[in-house]
Backbone:
């Protein structure tokens, strides 16, 4: 998904999402050591409303972070940081099923005794899962795309069937089977996403974020109060008992989230003791001071994210491979890293380093402006007019200005076009507006190569509206490889293909200038411990605890 | 008088209608910013998008969409924002007390100081005090309001954060009832910023008005009769001199509530109508924009009408 | 000229209006002061900018030096540190006021940005006052139906909350540019903010002018001209224009001041001058995010704006006093 979470009202206020630096939780051993203490209310802040608090609809990091603490699915990603947090483990299901019938059928057994929160207060049944997935199609969820591979899903979506025939739920035997139209290695990942979390049968076919009696939880917490734009309060779910160590009972008694806190305010309030935790990174210009003054309270985590400029292969002058390669040679990635406050690490790869064997580092484009100029000359595009697009959230306009100066330096005629963050992603993914070159980022929906290479570079996924393949990259040979990989089960063989495609696209197609993996930085209060950053669910509330 | 009111009311309705059409046209003509796309979320299928268009009525002809929007805004009062699907009217209603707190408080400050400085300037006309105050007044008017807010905020919350009087507290309670001191504390900085840029203008108006009145016959008569300068000032000149000030104040207040707050509220994080307006324009979010523009225009026109009524009542010569 | 001289037969020399105005103006120290300040600002920005580049550090406003170094106290200091903090003001030729996040020289940008802000302010004021004059005159003189239409149009623009209208227009134009018939304006052109700012303030000019024209048209010299057979256009040009000239001139200065402030505000909201071209407003907009580590980026252009606008306001005030000490022209902007 895009990291939209930094959106805050207006141009000059928004402060960076871009932060950086490699390894998982650092920042002083003292803070995370010690025995967790139960109790207390976490004082939290968030810059703007999450898009939804409805597990079937929310598709932002803020939303997933909250929903992770309140709801559960058949499977989950291990509640750990870094690469360990990319492993799929059972949650409400009793085990990880191997697919049968040539990879087309997955059958799950549900454990008994998992209860919904009041007022529903009954056991979670297989039919609830069937209902939840069907509901996605009825509410036009942004996540339906993950489940269209189930037999009968499209017919149901079109209104030609009253249920999805490919989901077979047996409440008596506590089993549920999914029949797929073709083998899909990432199906298990899809089952660990919040879209597939359990909601009780009968949940209305609309956004239940603001309907308290339908905000039903299965996890350690539930949302007891939600005033959009003002606050979100999470309290303990009385019907929760921990059923695996992977789904722990939280330490905190309650979580009190204030909406509308700016990054600058969050730093002041945390220093004053009025805030324990803030959703965003601190503003990059405060970071050096914070790291010096409060080293035990600043934590850095790696994310599954890349930052890049996408070049449109259908538009002059980027329709020429030489030009795209030239831009790659002419870009000094260190400069871009500086502009993002040094909070991340340089990369050329399409796949992030947290993806295990799918990540094989390559270095095809060392900084070489002379070579770039030569390439531009040979392509005969000197003087071509280019508009570099970016959103207005700081520091991205600075990145675009840097890119413009790079392009001007190699002989093109570049200007900058800044668009407001809330419409930027829509605009650049609509063919009508197609930018020539645009700032882009992508952060994992789930930690697998398909989520990057298939979604962003498969020529068959190009659409006119809502297009994620903004380069319009279309290499039929690679498309075939992608399809092949998708059918394979998760593992090293599959990852090897992603690595091959990563190198292949970068070298022979150069659709992007990838420059950085952003890191997540947190500045928290002195009494907050137990911070665990999971690349999919983000900060895990159930693992946090407050010292006295 | 009655006719006058009716005419003004009719004019108000016409203006609001014209503005609503203008806003609707501008935002539907903008290339890009397709609300269906935004509502569809991150991984929309083409099916999703088509369904959303149907559900929200984006496939209907423009005049039909306009009528629907006006219906949702005024009659059914359930207009929803495209950006986050929150109801527009309650959000505006929640923001109005905060914006009013900001505008009225600042208004009181700038009126008071404007009059004081203007009177001083007028009484000592031509002398160095007058010249100094003139330059100061005009300086106030020349400061970019958002810049002043930003710089003050930086100085007082960051640089001098530790000094107790300067520890400005981010906004919290907005009601003066019950916690007037806390209310004033939260709004102190924004009041100062909004007032500074207006004091200068008022000082100038009071000054010139005072000078005009002082040269009038009845004042000279009062002087000739032996009344002290102070008495002459307070009982004769000031009252008349302040008439244009009062009318201007009405206009400015209307303009402030309707518009200028858009620059101040985002800086101080005051969740009033101004901040909502700025966010909505940035997001190209038509429903709240429509509501806010009409709300703003309404205030401007109403205050204008009130001012005209006040003028007519105070000064029989200009009765319409 | 003394009484004795007149009695001795000399013809008294009258002084014309302009000469009298100039004398009053000359005698006002704040007026002279502000005129000088304004002159200094214009000189610094127009011939001064390239002069500074030639003499001081030889890099222009677009030169991004993110990985560069400057020498300070014998040490090599990076222009932009690894954490993104740009260098601050210091007593050196290069980066006298420090650098911005992209490693550009603030002093140079300030000077070139001044050009843009002044151009936008002045051009938009000319368009605004020109249009306002035209509309006010036609509306006031012709009256009747034309007046109704034009007045309602003015009311409409004037009731529309200024910033909302400006931002709405600017956003829509900025995304796609402007295309009227054969006229095409690219979305990054300066013409867009100039046009938007001009249009939004036309009623502030048109209304007072209209009021003035209405009271003028009843006067004898107008009646005389009409009686002599002058058509409306002729009357407007030769009789009315000279009489609204002083009001127009004063308004021009005040509107320029106002427009410079508006340009800054619109840039702050993100819809003013497009960012690669510096203007005082968008330097503040970009610098605001770094206000804690690099306050000069925000403070310097703000001071520049303040200085220019104050002198314009003082000048306008003084002009009003000089041209017509009893005038009641107040332009609330």
Residues:
């Amino acid at each position: 998904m895009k990291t939209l979470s930094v959106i805050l009202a207006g141009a000059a206020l928004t402060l960076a999402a871009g932060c950086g630096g490699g390894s998982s939780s650092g920042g002083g051993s003292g803070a995370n050591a010690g025995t967790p203490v139960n109790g207390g209310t976490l004082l939290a802040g968030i810059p703007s409303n999450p898009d939804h608090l409805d597990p079937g609809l929310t598709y932002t990091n803020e939303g997933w972070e909250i929903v992770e603490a309140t709801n559960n699915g058949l499977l989950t990603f291990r509640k750990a940081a870094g690469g360990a947090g990319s492993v799929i483990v059972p949650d409400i299901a009793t085990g990880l099923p191997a697919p049968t019938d040539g990879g087309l059928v997955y059958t799950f057994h549900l454990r008994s005794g998992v209860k919904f929160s009041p007022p529903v207060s009954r056991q979670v049944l297989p039919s609830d899962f069937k209902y939840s997935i069907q509901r996605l199609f009825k509410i036009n969820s942004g996540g339906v795309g993950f489940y269209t591979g189930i037999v009968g899903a499209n017919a149901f979506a079109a209104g030609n069937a009253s249920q999805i025939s490919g989901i077979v739920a047996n409440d008596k035997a506590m089993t549920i089977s999914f029949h797929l139209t073709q083998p899909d290695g990432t199906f298990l990942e899809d089952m660990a996403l919040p879209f597939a979390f359990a909601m009780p049968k009968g949940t209305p076919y609309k956004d239940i974020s603001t309907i308290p009696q339908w905000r039903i939880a299965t996890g350690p917490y539930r949302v007891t109060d939600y005033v959009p734009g003002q606050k979100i309060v999470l309290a303990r779910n009385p019907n929760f008992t921990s059923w695996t160590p992977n789904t722990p009972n939280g330490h905190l008694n309650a979580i009190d989230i204030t909406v509308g806190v700016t990054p600058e305010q969050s730093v002041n309030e945390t220093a004053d003791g009025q805030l324990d935790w803030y959703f965003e990174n601190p503003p990059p210009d405060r970071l050096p001071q914070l790291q010096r003054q409060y080293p035990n309270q600043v934590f850095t985590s790696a994310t599954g994210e890349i930052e890049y400029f996408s070049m449109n292969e259908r538009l002059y002058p980027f329709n020429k491979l030489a030009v795209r390669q030239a831009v790659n040679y002419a870009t000094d990635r260190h400069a871009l890293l500086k502009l993002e406050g040094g909070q991340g690490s340089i990369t050329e790869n399409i796949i992030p380093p947290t993806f295990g064997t799918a990540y094989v580092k390559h270095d095809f484009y060392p900084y070489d402006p002379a070579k770039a100029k030569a390439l531009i000359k040979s392509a005969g595009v000197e003087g071509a007019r280019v508009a570099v697009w970016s959103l207005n959230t700081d520091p991205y306009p600075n990145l675009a200005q840097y890119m413009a100066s790079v392009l001007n330096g190699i002989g093109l005629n570049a200007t900058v076009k800044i668009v407001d963050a809330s419409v930027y992603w829509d605009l650049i993914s609509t063919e009508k507006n197609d930018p020539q070159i645009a700032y882009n980022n992508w952060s994992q929906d789930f930690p697998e190569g398909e989520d990057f290479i298939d979604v962003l570079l498969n020529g068959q996924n190009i659409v006119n509206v809502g297009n994620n393949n903004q380069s319009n990259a279309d290499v039929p040979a690679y498309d075939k490889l992608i399809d092949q990989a998708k059918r394979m089960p998760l593992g090293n063989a599959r990852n090897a293909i992603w690595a091959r495609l990563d190198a292949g696209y970068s070298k022979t197609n150069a659709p992007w200038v990838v420059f950085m993996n952003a890191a997540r930085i947190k500045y928290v209060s002195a009494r907050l411990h137990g911070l665990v950053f999971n690349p999919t669910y983000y900060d895990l509330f159930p693992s946090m605890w407050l010292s006295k | 008088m009655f006719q006058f009111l009716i005419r003004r009311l009719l004019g108000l309705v016409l203006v609001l209608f014209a503005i609503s059409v203008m806003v609707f046209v501008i935002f539907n003509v903008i290339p890009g910013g397709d609300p269906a796309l935004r509502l569809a979320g991150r991984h929309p299928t083409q099916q999703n998008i088509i369904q959303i268009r149907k559900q929200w009525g984006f496939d209907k002809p423009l005049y039909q969409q306009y009528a629907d929007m006006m219906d949702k805004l005024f009659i059914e009062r359930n207009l929803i924002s495209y950006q986050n699907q929150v109801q527009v009217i309650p959000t505006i209603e929640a923001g109005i007390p905060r914006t009013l707190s900001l505008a009225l408080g600042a208004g009181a400050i700038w009126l008071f100081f404007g009059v004081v400085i203007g009177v001083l300037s007028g009484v000592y006309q031509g002398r160095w005090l007058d010249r100094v105050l003139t330059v100061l007044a005009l300086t106030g008017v020349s400061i970019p309001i958002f810049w002043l807010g930003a710089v003050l905020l930086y100085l007082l919350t960051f640089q001098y954060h530790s000094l107790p009087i300067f520890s400005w507290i981010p906004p919290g309670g907005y009601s003066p009832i019950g916690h007037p001191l806390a209310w004033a504390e939260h709004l102190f900085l924004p009041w100062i910023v909004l007032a500074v840029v207006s004091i200068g203008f008022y000082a100038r108006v009071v000054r010139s008005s005072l000078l005009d009145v002082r040269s009038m016959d009845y004042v000279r008569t009062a002087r000739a009769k032996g009344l002290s300068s102070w008495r002459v000032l307070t009982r004769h000149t000031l009252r008349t001199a302040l008439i244009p000030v009062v009318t201007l104040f009405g206009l400015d207040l209307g303009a402030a509530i309707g518009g200028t707050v858009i620059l101040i509220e985002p800086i101080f994080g005051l969740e009033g109508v101004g901040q909502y307006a700025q966010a909505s324009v940035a997001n190209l979010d038509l429903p709240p924009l429509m509501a806010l523009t009409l709300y703003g225009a309404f205030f401007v026109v109403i205050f204008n009408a009130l001012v005209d009524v006040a003028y007519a009542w105070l000064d029989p010569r200009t009765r319409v | 000229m003394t009484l004795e001289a007149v009695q001795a037969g000399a013809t008294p020399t009258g002084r014309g209006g302009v000469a009298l105005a100039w004398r009053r103006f000359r005698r006002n120290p704040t007026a002279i002061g502000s005129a000088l300040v304004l002159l200094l600002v214009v000189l610094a920005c127009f011939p001064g900018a390239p002069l500074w580049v030639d003499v001081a550090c030889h890099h222009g406003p677009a030169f991004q030096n993110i990985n560069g170094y400057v020498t300070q106290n014998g040490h090599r200091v990076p222009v932009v540190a690894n954490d993104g903090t740009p260098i601050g003001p210091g007593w050196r030729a290069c980066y006298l006021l420090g650098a911005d996040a992209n490693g550009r020289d603030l002093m140079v940008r300030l000077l070139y940005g001044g050009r843009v802000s002044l151009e936008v302010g002045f051009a938009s004021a000319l368009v605004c006052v020109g249009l306002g004059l035209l509309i006010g005159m036609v509306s006031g003189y012709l009256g009747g139906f034309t007046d109704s239409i034009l007045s309602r149009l003015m009311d409409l623009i004037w009731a529309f909350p200024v910033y909302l209208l400006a931002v709405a227009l600017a956003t829509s134009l900025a995304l796609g540019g402007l295309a009227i018939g054969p006229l095409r304006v690219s979305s990054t052109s300066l013409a867009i903010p100039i046009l938007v700012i001009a249009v939004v303030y036309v009623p502030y000019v048109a209304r007072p002018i209209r009021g003035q024209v209405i009271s003028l048209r009843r006067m004898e010299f107008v009646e005389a001209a009409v009686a002599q057979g002058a058509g409306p256009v002729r009357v407007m040009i030769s009789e009315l224009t000279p009489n609204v000239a002083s009001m127009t001139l004063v308004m021009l200065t005040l509107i320029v001041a106002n427009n410079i402030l508006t340009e800054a505000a619109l840039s702050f909201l993100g819809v003013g001058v497009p960012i690669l071209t510096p203007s005082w407003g968008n330097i503040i907009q970009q610098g605001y995010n770094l206000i804690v580590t690099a306050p000069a980026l925000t403070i310097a252009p703000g001071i520049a704006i303040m200085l220019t606008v104050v002198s314009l306001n003082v000048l306008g005030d003084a002009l009003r006093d000089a041209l017509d000490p009893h005038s009641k022209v107040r332009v609330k902007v």
Notes: Residues 431 and 463 of chain A are 8 Å apart (CA to CA). The first strand of chain A starts at residue 41 and ends at 46. Chain A is about 25% helix and 20% strand.
